[in-house]
């Protein structure tokens, strides 16, 4: 990730007010650069979804501007934002509307006038990308939460966006399915697609993100690498967040003030290093932790 | 209910009273039937949320002829049955009137129209399904016929009542109203088709909701046993 | 709202006005407002002169403004009621017997012209309808959610009150479901501006809304029965009786309407 | 918790088959004893909700028996099961049916014929128990997810059940709100009410539960203390679960083969102990971890 690149998406938003008068977000200045994974973290109601929904012009700022790929988005060229910025909504049920999974993945292509055969081929490819080819003929309504999430992702990837936005991609998933979705997200990133996701799972954010933006009260209150953000107590307190487990453990046990582990792997590495130096208390009897 | 509502003050006082009494009579009969059968929680829950959905759906603008809005009364009838369908029609009319849509004084007349749509659509659908029609034609026809029945009933209500302040003879009024009914019939066909597609979609996902599953498909007059 | 219609009042906005604003009408007793709605319905039904109806409509418009409510929104919300008026009163404006306004239009069916009587009738019907529409909105936008719920519980017989209370509670949830469905489809390039080529999309979105309603009702049954539901949501909230001066206004308005009707319309001599 | 006590709830279920033919659960034998917190863990679709919904006769076994407080539950005395076993459903929205929070908490009482004034007093008390008195006049629709969960809990506590069942009580909540709900659950337990909850968050299960039941494919495949269950690899593999973070870290770093930490606190204690023995690598500069 290099900040010399020009951003793929630039959002400036003075305010977004919902019809009932609630201010969903204010004074936000947010960009997405090529080839990065950005995690928006914050508590429930911090404005994460509101920000995300601005990135593909689902919501429009009261006063502000959205620029996608150098083009300023207006009422007339929203389609541009929607093609470049794919959106996987949190509620998988409202995302999937077609009678079968394959139809659903083809939905966007058909909206853009791609002929049936080509659309079908591309949809199958997208399903294969997320390892969901076996679901092709299933009825979306009966998929499990994790399957729905994958199909939703395929339905967005098929449009070949330059940015994929995922709102709470792990919501409601068990750890096994969360890992599966997280792997697919990594894979999307490997295909040179930038990823923006929201989560209140800071462990997950630490695992996947190059950059973390912390939101509170409808505002981005800080950003940086996961390590910078999650060791910034003032910032986390402002956003009403607890640091990820590894940060807490390292701190509470008085470890790693220099290494600052943020992921579980960091913590294990730190402890293993100590172990290798012969410093930890109990040698591992089964050889685990030494490889 | 993809049609013209009767506006406040359209009718003379006597007509307002008459339609309110008839509407009250219909609803009382239904309430009596429902109470007699013992009120099941699932009926109340289905009717409550069904009415909420019908009311919410009304917010969606359907871009035909500059924009129409529908409550999908025919669909509601097919899914919930004639009794709950009628109660839903009443509740939706009460909330609509509170938002300035429809008329407070004509809740009775408007409910009669909408209840007739739900009731006719339900029985029509059951009959056609028994005749082994496919889901789409059966539901589209049932909803179209139901909504048309509502359109004719509304025309009749206007002609019988006379328009408040109009000196037009009944014969000429009938001609004016015929145009209105014609317009409503057009909307009925659109809503009928849409209902057909919706029921077809629902049948593909939850066949039990439209009485297609093997289980428990006895025609309970109160609709699905949610 | 970005995805749904501007022509139908959004219950969320209406409720937000009632809950978050404070104006003179917010402080009026809810029963008083219900009473006035009734009096207005009676008035627009029996009043027979355009000037009187226009005056009444003007008065209601002023009240709407005094309540601190937005006129611009109101104009948008008039679309459907006006459509109803036009569809009924429009043809009558031509057919109503009387002197033609200006020249007549000759058609294959004969001469067609708007008569003065037809025009007056159109005006009367518009004032009748919009008077009550405007006041109903005024009342809805100034009466708190809990008060509305309590009155529904009091005014409707069982089980309609139960249904209405659940409807009131879940309308908001269903609106969000519908809005989410529309948003998700739009973000994948769906086009809602043309119906015929997108009829299946409309059907799926409406179908999913209905399906979601039915499945929520299935969950609702469980949660209600788990707490021993037996067909009775009773509300313990209370909307007090109107204060005496408001009662006076309500009774006064009925007396005025009935009195006017008796004297001016039905020719009762005192 | 003593197993000499007779169980409050005993469920024997040969099978529960849903109307569409899916088997939701089979061969389950499950009891709840006085004064314990039981966590049902398992992946999405393992049958946790199905089992829970049998505990208050929301669902009825095809072939089997539910005994609550010594009484066998039949069609005629379901009310008994529903009074003794309070149920907080996962979907917080369908849990709240009345127009205001106070009305909603009173809902159950009024169904059982408790007079208005008494019901109001008891509802206020229940709201106070979960620290939600300030929500009394609020409209359920405008509550946050965490608030809805607390109000749902109050609506169940007000009926003074002997067991409270919570289906995925942390679903959709951010860490801060999760902690709040978890604290309230602890508090319910302190009032001598047994708690049964389902979760796929094993960290949470390790924190709150006395006993863990692991479910897979509609069956309880194992149970024990969190330590027993979460160090049983074969069991977790069968249920398609990953051990909690602390277990993974301890293992991967070759720590604590004897102490077997299961919660974050256990892990920190283990590391601190090592620290106190002067064995860890980096002393804590800010005094953290030593108290």
From TrEMBL, chain B:
Alphabetized, the UniProt keywords read: Cell membrane, Membrane, Transmembrane, Transmembrane helix, Transport
**TM annotation in the entry:** 12-32, 44-62, 74-95, 102-125, 145-163, 175-203
A GO CC term attached to the entry: plasma membrane
- Topology in the membrane? Multi-pass membrane protein
Task: State the source organism's domain of life.
Answer: Archaea
Q: Where in the cell is it found?
A: Cell membrane
Swiss-Prot/TrEMBL GO biological process terms: transition metal ion transport
**Where is this protein chiefly located?**
membrane
Record's PANTHER family? METAL TRANSPORT PROTEIN HI_1621-RELATED
* Protein's recorded name: Cobalt ABC transporter permease
TrEMBL record, chain C:
Question: Transmembrane ranges?
Answer: 34-67, 74-94, 114-137, 247-268
**A family per Pfam:** CbiQ
Instruction: Could you list this entry's UniProt keywords, alphabetically sorted.
Output: Cell membrane, Membrane, Transmembrane, Transmembrane helix
Q: Where does this chain mainly localize?
A: membrane
Superkingdom to which the source organism belongs: Archaea
Q: Name one GO cellular component term.
A: plasma membrane
Identify the InterPro entries for this entry.
Answer: ABC/ECF_trnsptr_transmembrane, ECF_transporter_component
Record membrane topology: Multi-pass membrane protein
Please state what the protein is called.
Cobalt ABC transporter permease
Q: Which organism is it from?
A: Halonotius pteroides
Subcellular localization, per the record?
Answer: Membrane
